[in-house]
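step=predict obj=NADH dehydrogenase [ubiquinone] 1 alpha subcomplex subunit 2 n=92
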Amino acid sequence: MAAARLSSKIKELRILLCQTSKSSEGVRNFIENHYVSLKKANPQLPIMIRECSQIEPRLFVRVEYGKEKCYPLSNLKVDDVLQKFQQATSNP
């Protein structure tokens, strides 16, 4: 489901996560399982993945006029991350 074409209102997706922490495990699994199909479905959309030690995982969705929304992803399983991602991108 993450491979769906996203709204043209979305200008950028940014995922912040830690490379090793338990709180980012679901986000790492989400990226492994869904990033390629998501990028293929939205080739013009910048999808940035930023790794930093000891950071709490978050999803930032930037929409028109530079407005951003932040969604916390700490301690979520991959299915919960997918659900949060769908929620965040379905109504930007």
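step=describe
Residues 25-41 form the longest helix (17 residues).
step=end
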